[in-house]
Fold each of these.
Amino acid sequence: MLIAEIFRLAFASLTANKLRSSLTVLGIAVGVFSVIGVMTLINGMRGSIESGLNVLGANSFQINKFPPISFNDWNRFRNRRDVTYAVANRFKDLMGDSAKVNLQIGRGGMTVVVRDRKTNPNVRLVGTDENYVTAFNYDVVAGRNLGADDVEYGRPVCLLGSDVIQRIFPDEEALGKMVRINGQNYTVVGLLAPKGTSFGGNPDNLVVTPISRFLAVYGRAYRSISMNVQAPSQAEMAATQEKAVGMMRLVRGLHPEDGNDFEVFSNESLIEAFNKIADVVAAGALIISAIALLASGVGVMNIMLVSVTERTKEIGIRKSIGAKKKSIMLQFLAEAVALSLIGGVAGVAVGVGGGNTAAYFMNTAITFPWLWAGIGLFVCGGIGVVFGLYPAWKAASLDPIEALRYE
């Protein structure tokens, strides 16, 4: 038999049993989808990780009451003492000129109002100081930055993010105008350049005001200040971080035997923490997919054995008119591999689509995991061969006389 004829017969047999073939394909597709969907999303997130998590300025690290990512011991972190404004200011003074220290605290869900125009109630109000723009890689495109005097005297001034500007000042100059947030008036003294959305967040949907003003309006109780420390250069990063930890322990009043009751993290530590989580998720997806594909492989074998039984007489006729053993075996192997590869292609397509849909809503990169798609199809082909080998061998080994008698 010609190879083309063998494969034509194999596909004809598959289309003759549409329901059975569809169920087998579905089982394999689910197994492939589980890993391809997760890998597509993770690859997109990895592609956006440096831009999405690179929220700090160059040579910077952050000091906070809480770790950036945590899945356990949350009560322990919550029960830590807050980093008060007085403690944060003392830390900033002790660091002096050795590093640029920024203090910040935020509050989400705010609405910015100008006359009859207002934003959605999702604006973030950030109380901070004159170093915020540098610490978080913003550019002031018009007006001025917050000044040390603004912070010292708690002036009701603010900087607007580009999304807020477009919403409430679409056709007019915003500088010098007054906006109202939660019943408080602020004069616009500066406009921030757009940064673009990334990693599920929108850094342009914010209003920046002096931290002293923020605390005067919303109170200092149960408020913990975050601090960004920027070293003069990458070469001095380690020494600056070591000094910052020492100064922080001093202002917190910790004894030598006490552990740190604060967290220090940088861009690198954020990326490392994300990669650890991504690796765990990927491993879980692989385990789930392996179990699903194993079950699907058993299903392929069972269906092929049923097919051999149903087509015993057909096999006998073919062997009696000269079909070779290897041709029969190749036909049934082709059916098993075709079932597996069709399921694999369907799983890859749905997985890539589902993963990229999730990536779109999370504002991460849209990707196609070529490597994992190739691995998935290769594995599916292997499943077809491994689990189709025994039914194919059984079909090829049938005695043509006995097969012709089969009813």
Amino acid sequence: MSHFTNAELEYLGGGERRLARLATVGTDGMPHVAPVGFAHDPDADTIDIGGHHLERTKKYRDVRRDGRVAVVIDDVLPPWRPRGIEVRGRADAVGEPEPRIRIHPERIISWGIESDEIGRHHARDVTA
């Protein structure tokens, strides 16, 4: 069973959302945020981040060293209906078969997905 609700899974699987923003922790303790591509892995129930030469990036090195991450996947429907999902958790820097960052959810916060009411959030802690 997934940590994500059915509505969140539908949102994550929607083909129109291609970009997310990944936050990692640098060696100096400062946050680093970068736009990334993503996919939900239904078998592992993780958010996977890929990209060209990912293993050469700061975000990959940050994850390999620290493992704390947050990712936001969002959009806005007209005229003004923001919606999205934030996933906080631990991540692994996976090298094979191709480099990727695999995020294991510990906290999920969504808005505009479970309810059309602006400002209403659906937040919960989950066990990985």
Amino acid sequence: MEPLRPVVLERLMRYYRYLSEVTARKNIDTITSAQLGATLHIDPTQVRKDFGAIGLMGISRVGYEVCEVCRAIRLVFGFDRPYPAILVGAGHLGKALLSYPGFVRYGLRFIAAFDNDPSKVGLTEAGLKVQGIRSMKPFVRKNNIKMAVLTTPVSVSQTITDRLVSAGIQAIWNFSPTRLTVPEGVLIRNEHISLGLAQVAYHLNALRTEENGELPTLDQPCDEPCRPEDL
């Protein structure tokens, strides 16, 4: 199978999440590309192309077997092959991620958590004892860990990343609001909370503009520089 482009992977996850939600509410055996496309606002032809890329062939006038679609997507992503991961940064966000039970559906299993804050080291979060950063590298090597989830402050994120990569980490899910530099072959997935908040703020600002009939202007003096990232 040819490597799938990120945009295709994103659509496959949309199909999977939708079908998982639907089957949790009611029995549904088959679905057509037209039905799936209409619900998710994706062209039915694109749905068929995406399914064809992972070896799925629909049945004329019937569509696709929902169970088979979900199984094929799980195989593509490897959800049924659990992979251990570590979390670095046991603050509020880190603790929330450790406690989220839904990751198990996608194969993610946290087996250790690390932090450099003495007040956090030694505490137990979601059944895991938080360890100091100094023990992180030996732990990764000893247990052959390939994935890390990063929720550290910007000031230390690159340093931590360098240590993770040198220990053998091959994929980093980055919740730290900064762009990280890694060698070729190491995957970085950035999750900028600020971008999500910006989209919400834009939507609300547009609604206020419609209600008040006021448009933002740039005729006022600029006395405030761009705010630093703190999310």
Amino acid sequence: MTNFFFYSLCALIIYAPIPLGANRIWASSILDFFIFALFLGHLLASIKNKQHFFPPRYSLAILAPLSVTALWLMLQITPGLGTLLGRSFPTLSFDPSLTHIMWLKTLALIQFAWLVFYYVNTKTTLYKFALAILISGLFQALYASWLNLNEGMISPIFSIPYSTAAVGSFIYKNQLANYLALCLSIGIGVLISQLSLKGSGHQVRHKIRDIASVLLSSKMLIRLSLIIMIIALILTRSRMGNSAFFLALAAISIFSFFFYNRKPKNLRLLILSFFIIDLILVGTIFGVEKVKQRLLETSLASETRDEVVRDSIPMILEYPVFGTGGGSFYSSFSQYQAQPYSGFYDHAHNDYIQFAAELGLPITLLLGTMVLYCLFISLKTIVKRKTPLYQGVSFGCAAAIIHMLLHATVDFSLQSPAISLLFISILSLTLISANLKREQG
């Protein structure tokens, strides 16, 4: 049964983004149902086999903040509290139905993280789970590139019209870019963990032997997968999606050059290859110039996202503690919108602003602290631990977290259940990599 639950988690990671990034109520409800059913199965199996039910204690760093958030959402939809606190609504939430949906999503995230902490408990399962993330990103990259390079083709999944920017099974290109960047980060970490700690011999035959062993090993398959994902990331034409990923990779790479414990001999060459081979050569073929052009053409005059952020600030100032209700930005923002924009905004295009407006500042700071703590732990693992897999996965997790911190300033990727599920999984991997014993696996 242990294998069943573990591989079910891997399958859910791969499945989650396929139905429109689970960014529709029906899609997120199906995903929630699968997670709830799996968690119930875990409970029943634990009782039947008389095994412990709870995950390791270090999981509290993630499960506790998420649980507090779930309780907060329950308070927001509790009848009578709004009136008690002087609001014109009986509940604290402006839209209790949407807050209820967000509450269910949060419960699903808690249970999924619980299961990840419980079943990803050896080096082998950690490696396989990281590979599942890589496979999910590869599938999205292949699907998105195939659609984008076949001009005019309608998507066979949900018949999505052709887009000049790659979207994959998502609807929004920036969300695909974010998802790919997270998967790329973990994939790079896995590849780093497989680098040899010893350099090649000076003799030509030794170098030829080492090159042949790389070409015939899983490292080459992983490297090719990363190149395909880089291509798809570029094809999204996402400005911040591309910029944030390479900035995050550069930041963690520089940190690793100085502080990586028992640094692999070819680490610098591998990192440089991502910037020279992938970004320059591959990017030139598949249109990195178009991304560059979009960056250059970006101006405050042509963008209205800054105006959405500006008009969202009064929401936070008026309800700084309890917020307007989880998921309520869609219905409550219109009351604060000073003037019509060129488009309709159902999200703030800034996760920090949206979380603060909907959940209030205390919960936003709590969740932010959780993310920063996981970033700190991943960096500490890179510096302190000696097991290559734990260090490599932590490298990928750190790059993924920094990418998300940057991308969240201009987009709403965490509002997609598929991306939030993946991100919580990555945060969980930071603690698992830091706490698994060296001999486990």
